[in-house]
Design goal:
- The chain is an alpha/beta fold.
- It is built from 9 helices and 12 strands.
- The chain has a 4-stranded parallel sheet with strand order 1-12-10-11, with helices on both faces. The protein has a 4-stranded parallel sheet with strand order 3-2-4-5, with helices on both faces. Strands 7-6-8-9 form a 4-stranded parallel sheet, with helices on both faces.
- The N and C termini lie close together (about 5 Å).
Length: about 280
């Protein structure tokens, strides 16, 4: 059996930047998981003494708080600064942009519609920047019966599928006087999704490596499953079931934007040690 990596996979620019920031700020703590990969978070704590808390209120004056890649809510950021906390912002610039758009368009009188998962920390943060509020939707159905202004600003979660985003845009455009659609899906997401789509069409079995709570990894898995029924979402080599590879000729591998290379290599080595390549 041969193993082939997708043309684009793994750490994106924003995650690489956040990891570097964390490594340069030892003895600090992140507010919320820096990235959605528990193994990498454990490495940062072990090697760089970077802890983790889900409660921003525990930070005191002089403490160093690292803001996660997905960003935090505007009011929470203000609270931290007002208490004299040393805030180190590792928010991905691709996430900062929709925050800025939400605030600007809301203040200009637009109804802000956000396409994404309302429970995801990125979306909670973006929504908090819409001065006059925002509605979060996952599909056009969520907009049925909703009263909006004649002017709409549409923003997407950075890791969503563009095809699904366009469904929401196409629903809004004929129904309102002005609809401004902002392309806030990041380039790395496009590239990784295109690469997994291409590889999954020719692979016999696909592995998508990444955190179970990683939105972009779930998206990669869903795309892979559309083309290759034997697709599996794993966090690391411990999740492997070697029966998956029985009578398979090509194993395709991709990984979410929060998955470090060392985990990907561990998976490849584990497969190679058990499966004899043809």
């Amino acid at each position: 059996m041969n193993i082939e990596l997708a043309e684009n996979y793994g750490f994106c620019f924003g995650v690489k930047r956040a990891i570097k920031i964390a490594e340069e700020n030892q003895n600090a703590a992140t507010y919320g998981p820096l990235i959605h990969n528990s193994r990498e978070i454990a490495r940062l704590e072990k090697d760089f003494k970077v802890g983790l808390t889900d409660n921003h209120k525990i930070f005191q004056a002089g403490d160093k708080a690292i803001v996660r890649t997905h960003g935090i809510q505007k009011q929470e950021l203000q609270e931290l600064k007002e208490r004299g906390v040393d805030v180190v912002d590792a928010t991905c610039p691709y996430v900062t942009k929709p925050q800025e758009i939400a605030q600007e368009m809301s203040e200009l009188g637009y109804s802000v519609v956000i396409f994404g998962d309302e429970e995801h920390p990125e979306i909670k943060g973006v929504k908090s920047y819409a001065t006059n509020g925002a509605i979060v939707v996952m599909s056009p159905k969520d907009l049925e019966g909703v009263k909006l202004h004649e002017k709409i600003a549409l923003i997407a979660q950075t890791t969503r599928k563009v095809e699904n985003y366009m469904e929401v845009a196409n629903y809004l455009i004929p129904r309102y006087k002005e609809v401004r659609v902002f392309n806030t899906i990041c380039n790395a997401t496009f590239e990784n999704q295109d690469a997994v789509r291409k590889l999954s069409k020719k692979a016999d079995v696909m592995l998508i490596i990444g955190g179970k709570n990683s939105s972009n990894t779930k998206q990669l898995f869903n795309i892979s499953k559309e083309n290759c029924k034997d697709s599996y979402h794993i966090e690391d080599e411990k999740d492997l079931d070697f029966s998956w590879f029985d009578n398979k000729k090509l194993c395709g591998i991709s990984a979410g934007a929060s998955t470090p290379d060392w985990i990907i290599q561990n998976v490849i080595e584990a497969i190679k040690s058990k499966i004899t390549q043809n």
